[in-house]
Design a protein that fits this description.
Elements (H helix, E strand, L loop, with lengths): L7 H27 L3 E6 L4 H13 L2 E4 L5 H4 L4 E6 L1 E2 L2 E2 L2 H11 L2 E5 L1
Parallel strand pairs: 1-2, 1-3, 3-6
Antiparallel strand pairs: 4-5
């Protein structure tokens, strides 16, 4: 029986909203659990790559560091390492150094321009 002044449809709508919120939170927690071991390394000249790297880190719960601070030892503590940099003339700035570092670390690698 519905509360006085509240229809069954309204109660069902509230339940659906509550369930959606619960499901969204559960999915976010699972995503964060899966991504606790992801590192995002960026090299930014103008600030655009830094902006996108930090946004990705915030959305996924990943740690974000600057290219200059990255070391093979630091990267080795992560399951996945992501590198972002500007692309110029078909090449990514800092790619060769970071590729070697990622390979030494044993982390899965991802790159975005």
């Amino acid at each position: 029986m519905a509360a006085p002044g509240v229809s069954v449809d309204e109660i069902l709508e509230w339940q659906e909203i509550a369930y959606d919120a619960f499901l969204k939170q559960a999915l976010k927690e699972e995503w964060n659990r899966m991504n606790q071991k992801t590192l995002i390394v960026y090299k930014s000249t103008t600030g655009f790559t830094r902006k996108y790297a930090k946004l990705a880190g915030k959305e996924t719960g990943s740690k974000v560091i600057e290219y200059q601070k990255a070391t093979a030892k630091l990267v080795s503590g992560y399951d996945t390492a992501v590198f972002g940099s500007r692309a110029h003339a078909g090449r990514m700035n800092g790619y060769h150094r970071i590729k070697k570092m990622f390979q030494k670390s044993g982390a899965k690698q991802m790159v975005f321009p």
